[in-house]
Amino acid sequence: MIRILRLRRACAVAAMTLALLTPALRAQETQTEEMEKRAKLLQTLPQDAAKRHFGAARAGTGGEARTIGSYAKGCIAGARALSTDGPTWQGMRISRNRNWGHPDLIALIERIAKTAPREAGWRGLLVGDISQPRGGPMLTGHASHQVGLDADIWLTPMGSRKLSVDERETISATNVVASDWMDVDPNRWTDAHHAIIRLAAEQEGVTRIFVNPAIKKALCREATGDRAWLSRVRPIWGHNYHFHIRMGCPDGDSACLDQTPPPPGDGCGEELTDWLNLQHKAYFGPKPPSSGKPKPVKHMPLSAMPEACQKIVLSR
To answer: Which of 111, 113, 178, 305 allows an S-S link to 309, with CB 3.0 to 4.6 Å?
Structure first.
């Protein structure tokens, strides 16, 4: 199994190199940049592309919440929108209309935000992308976030004042990873970063927290006492400006396809070392040769989505 995992990660190095060098993973695009990307994509995007339909939905379906399919190929009915502002949270990049999620996830975000100042010394949450109103594939960015059970939390605590609309659309989150991509930046990483990620990982219903491998390394080094929560913190490229919360399928949602639970142990050994080395190689190693031709992009047609999702996105 370990050899298989290594092979899979090695095969992903080239793709990882390209991904790490895109603005979406360096920081969050501004509203202007996002709109330009969408406009350019829509010029060539097939009419039957699933992301075209789901990206056009401006509101949820109402009714009882249901999650259908997998995190990277699914949708949600009855999603709830996180309020733009709360006592201890503020929504970011609100023009994207990606503040929709399963009611259980919205309640989780609000619960973490409420306890963050007391439990983590974190004034409040700046909340990035959750899901679209009906989930599904997004016009830009994420492959996951499709069933309303994923949320991005910026690695920047909420300030003491309410941000303006313009600030929410333009400012960047904090990159806490060092320039060599092998550890966190000691000038930016704080005990509060460790505490807020641990707080999220320990919440009921959370199955995974995705962070940059360098952040996982810091968490492994600093964790004391019970280390069980570390097994849910999974290293993956990107995620140096935010951490990603993932909940498991809600009870009773038989059409929701859950992930296999993380392997036992704290995940601080050889697997983490492999991720760090792959990340360093992607940035500083030889780049794969380019053919000079743009790689054709395949877009999933709506017909390839679960039948229930096709009905959800086309319903009025």
So the answer is: 305
For 272-281, how does the pLDDT look when each residue is reduced to its tens digit (9 = 90+)? Answer: 999 999 999 9
From the CB of residue 181, how many other CB atoms can be counted at a distance below 10 Å? 19
147-184 pLDDT, tens per residue?
999 999 999 999 999 999 999 999 999 999 999 999 99
Under a CB-based contact definition with an 8 Å cutoff, are residues 127 and 157 in contact? no
pTM higher than 0.85 = yes
Q: For residue 69, what are its two tokens?
A: 């399919």
List the domain boundaries for the chain.
2-314
Find out whether 137 and 57 touch, Cβ atoms under 8 Å. Answer: no
Tell me yes or no: is domain 2-314 CATH 3.20.20.140. Answer: no
